[in-house]
Amino acid sequence: MRTQLSFAPLAGIETELLAVLAADTQTSKAPYAKPQPMLLTSDAAVQAAAASVLLSGEYKAGANETVLLHAPAGVAAKRLLLVGLGKQAKATADKVRNAAGTAVRFVKPRGIRELVFALPESELLPAASCARAAVEGAFIGDFDPDTYRSDRKDQSVESFTLTAPAGVDCAALEAAFAEAIIIGESQNFTRSLVNEPGNKLTPTLLGQRAARMAAEVGLGWEVHSTEKLHELKMGAFWSVSQGSAEPPALIVLRYEPEGMSDGPILGLVGKGITFDSGGISIKPADKMEQMKYDMAGGAAMLGAMRAIALLKPRVRVIAVICAAENMPSGTAQKPGDVQTAMPFSADQPGKTIEIINTDAEGRLVLADGLTYARQLGATHLIDAATLTGACVVALGYVNAGAFSNDEEIWAKFNAALATSGEMFWRLPLGEEYAEQIKSDIGDIKNTGGRWGGAITAAEFLKVFVEDTPWIHLDIAGLAWVEDSKPYIAKGPSGVAVRSILEWVRSY
Ligand code: BES
Ligand code: MN
Ligand code: ZN
């Protein structure tokens, strides 16, 4: 998708489709109060062209509600599309992100290849953050997951133009516009990886994709396999891969700003299970095919690293992605087995883990990934994983789970959420929960019973971060969009890429 920024007056722009935002200004709560939709543009010709549909009462400007007008009088565009933002008083940049996605997904199935999207004019909506949100939303809307359809026509929109009204700060807008392209493309890079089936994206192939991306954007990279896991004594990570014919991949990416040799090192750790069958504690067949997306946390880290490499924040970052396939076989680990996790230093013993359920494999690969990131010098840690079904039970498909052992790092992450617009809800940690994962035979066990499953999984990870400030993101419920929405296709969401990036940029 080509993107451009324009400052031309709206009514004169010749295009297949001009999308303009509308908001409902009705404030009365009376049950039959008529909606009062209003266009968020000062262009008189566009307002005149939309006047009769706005007056009709048929169009309410609800969130992502659309109405299409052909051959609008007095406007050079062939079509005028109104996209609703919902109540005007509640309009935010996030809603603009969705509205832009809606406009793109409106044109795609109609074979329209180009559109112009008017930046809303409203005091509640700062131009730069809306420009960024709109471009991100356009990329999000443009993504479709049907890559393996033999009759797939390349439905991608060819050209997306954002127009800004006269009088805005051009430099700020241009900067926001340029970074939004990088962010939108990076989120879609993550989504394209998450979309791949297990046979097309094994741990080895994920390592190759990561290496190719790293070389393209100028990141340092290493991809290791079985031997290195043994060398580092990554007994927990290795135990997950031991039942599969596919070797594991330990993916390490490094970003170092020029001339920077002190300050924090941020460690990004991702769960990269390219297929999770559950192992010997095998999952039920129903929906098992979805477990190809069990590498979404790792893919989010790859997308974030791509954006970091291109946006160049002044902070060092390393990413560790632990990729493996969790399979049952004669060589697979068994419930009751005891594994020894990677020791932080050679003079320390590794912690011992009693395997209760081989389907609680994400925390095993992350345990060694977190230790390795610390060993590589990470001073602050963030991990992302499709870790527990329990997190989906707790928060549904609306919020992803977040955990932290440190108020300062959490405050920074929470501030990042305001920019990213992503929904994370902080859940508690606590010693009482840690009791649930004590083992009779070793240090800890890999499941903590039925109750509070997202929390006991987080407590398990906490054992391996020790005192390092850390954030854990459980994205099990949000990594895959279950039902398509007007602004996003059903399929991989790319959740967490924007929040992780924004958090990194806050250092
Ligand atoms: N990958 C799953 C978690 C998951 C579930 C992700 C649903 C996305 C959607 C994870 O490896 C898993 O199997 N977790 C178990 C843990 C349990 C055995 C303690 C779970 O949540 O059931
Ligand atoms: Mn599992
Ligand atoms: Zn899993």
Task: Compile the SSE list and pairings.
Blueprint: E1 2-6, E2 18-24, E3 37-39, H1 44-56, E4 66-70, E5 79-87, H2 93-107, E6 114-118, H3 127-142, E7 159-163, H4 170-195, H5 203-217, E8 220-224, H6 226-231, H7 235-241, E9 249-255, E10 265-276, H8 296-311, E11 316-326, E12 338-340, E13 352-354, H9 362-375, E14 380-385, H10 389-395, E15 400-404, H11 407-420, E16 424-426, H12 431-434, E17 444-445, H13 453-465, E18 470-474, E19 480-481, E20 491-492, H14 497-505
Parallel strand pairs: 1-7, 2-5, 2-6, 6-7, 10-11, 10-14, 13-17, 14-18, 15-16
Antiparallel strand pairs: 2-3, 4-5, 8-9, 9-11, 12-13, 15-18, 19-20
The structure holds ligand BES, manganese (II) ion (MN) and zinc ion (ZN).
Count of DSSP strands = 20
Estimated radius of gyration: 24 Å
Please give the largest β-sheet. Answer: 8 strands, mixed
CATH architecture of the largest domain: 3-Layer(aba) Sandwich
Task: Point out poorly predicted stretches.
Answer: none
Number of domains: 2
Q: Could you name the CATH homologous superfamily of the largest domain?
A: Zn peptidases
How much helix is in the residues? 25-40%
Distance between the termini: 31 Å
Residue-averaged pLDDT: 97
- CATH fold-type name of the largest domain: Aminopeptidase
The kinds of small molecule bound in this structure are: ligand BES, manganese (II) ion, zinc ion
CATH class of the largest domain: Alpha Beta
Number of helices: 14
Shape: elongated
In terms of DSSP E residues, the strand content is 15-25%
- Please identify the structural class as seen in this structure: alpha/beta
